[in-house]
Amino acid sequence: LRRFMFIISLIALGMGLAVLLIGLLWLDRPFWSQLIFAIGIIVANVPEGLLATVTLSLALAARRMAANNALVKNLESVETLGCTTVICTDKTGTLTQNRMQVTRLFLNQCVHSDADARFERDELDKLLMVAVLCNNAQPLAAAQKYSGEPLEAALLAYAQRYLPVGAYRKARPRLCEQPFSADTKLMLTINQVGDAQIACLKGAPDVIIDWCDRILIDGRPQPLSATHKAAYLAAYAEFARRAERVLLFAYRAVPARAHWEEEDIPRSGYIFIGLIGLLDPPRPEVPQAVASLRAAGIRIIMVTGDYQVTAEAVARIVGLVVGERPVIVSGDLLHAMTDAQLDWELRTDEIIFARISPPQKLRIVQALQRQHEVVAMTGDGVNDAPALKQADIGVAMGISGTDVARDAADIVLLDDNFATLVPAVREGRAIFDNLKKSVAYILTHNVPEITPYLGFIFLGLPLPMTVVLILCIDLGTDMLPAIALGKERPESDILKQPPRPRQVVDLVIALVPQAGGVHPPQHVAAAIGPRQAHVLAD
Length: 538
What we know:
Blueprint: H1 2-25, H2 31-45, H3 50-67, E1 70-72, H4 76-82, E2 86-89, E3 101-107, E4 110-113, H5 121-133, E5 138-139, E6 146-147, H6 150-159, H7 165-170, E7 174-178, E8 186-193, E9 196-203, H8 205-208, E10 212-217, E11 220-223, H9 226-241, E12 244-254, E13 270-279, H10 286-295, E14 299-303, H11 308-318, E15 327-330, H12 331-336, H13 339-345, E16 351-354, H14 358-370, E17 375-379, H15 385-390, E18 393-397, H16 403-408, E19 411-413, H17 421-458, H18 467-486, H19 504-510, H20 521-528, H21 530-537
Parallel strand pairs: 2-14, 2-17, 10-13, 14-16, 15-16, 17-18, 18-19
Antiparallel strand pairs: 1-19, 3-4, 3-13, 5-6, 7-8, 8-9, 9-12, 10-11, 12-13
Helix pairs in contact: 1-2, 2-17, 2-18, 3-17, 3-18, 4-17, 9-11, 17-18, 20-21
């Protein structure tokens, strides 16, 4: 639109100046009379109603998207979403239902279902102790309802089957807490349990296992041997392959203190209790949404803080991964990568980022933008705000998202559902097509407005329209049909076409050297990425 308005303004001013000079030098008309004719030509060429047409069309599209649970904060992002080429999405709550429940446990070197875990009574008692005390969820007055993180609420719901959570906590007051963070991937509390002070630890198994030197077997702590670790790793892998989120639980007695500081909490000497696998089922509508977006030529990249095997399992269930060996980049591996190595990995069709911290999301977005991709990024946390702001389209979660994330985003998903992006992308593409129709209509509408002036100047015909009348026509009969075109429904195959590259024209200009000629295809692909290179080739 900016390019179109620049061109049409040059045409209007050029024609107006030409009419003024012709009238003065050739037809010998009075200056003021000819100036009014020149202004009439300029007014007839400039589409005065285009501003209102575009704004109203975008507003109507935003209203339709809001009806589909996608709240648009910036009208321009409606159209930008239509040319999105990559969507970076989180897993928990976006691809999944964020309704976790405990499914299986690893206790006493054995995998147990929920039904048979009670036979490992000593180990289960210690596991429930950590699950209840190292937990910030709170039971509500409603039966089986809990406030807080869904994962912690699921742990309390499970513990509630065996003990009264409220009374159990009250008898074991908390003395100190190290809250969970994306960097540490663990939570730790110290509680007064009877006459002793106990440190309760839960978090990512691959992180916490290094803090443990003993394991609880048959109710007694024993040295954590290589055999024990092999059994633990096998259970961890089995849980993760089933798309379960896995937590490790451990504890230890600590020297009694009247006051604890976070830096005083011990980082070793813990007793490994067991693992809990929690299943967060994928949303049933996500596989179809993924298939629709892939058919529309949009890549979908999972960026999650979960374990690699769990992320891959969920990606296969929802259809993000269909190949045998997708590229899986962990947070530690990403930290060691150079920008060039990251750019290379991002050119693969199927890639998953696991154990990723929020600051690393920003780096992934910047790497994709270096390849001239139009990036949509989903996020819900405070630390996601830089990545949401950097992305071409920041998409925040309306239910689980923080205020900071929603403020930084361009679109808010009111239902936290990945499938909501499908109608949003459809509206973004439809509004671009409809605006092209509106612009074409306005241009064809300007031709009969210019013709009477040309007939008056060159043929001496009576002037049928004044400048004021042309403005009335533009703002009256011109706008309503143009807005009606902006409300047209999307074409049936609009999600079967590849995204429209925003920068193709600028890239073509940039790739033509001053000496003439063009770069070889391999240089083009290296400069702008293969996805845009095939568009230029066509």
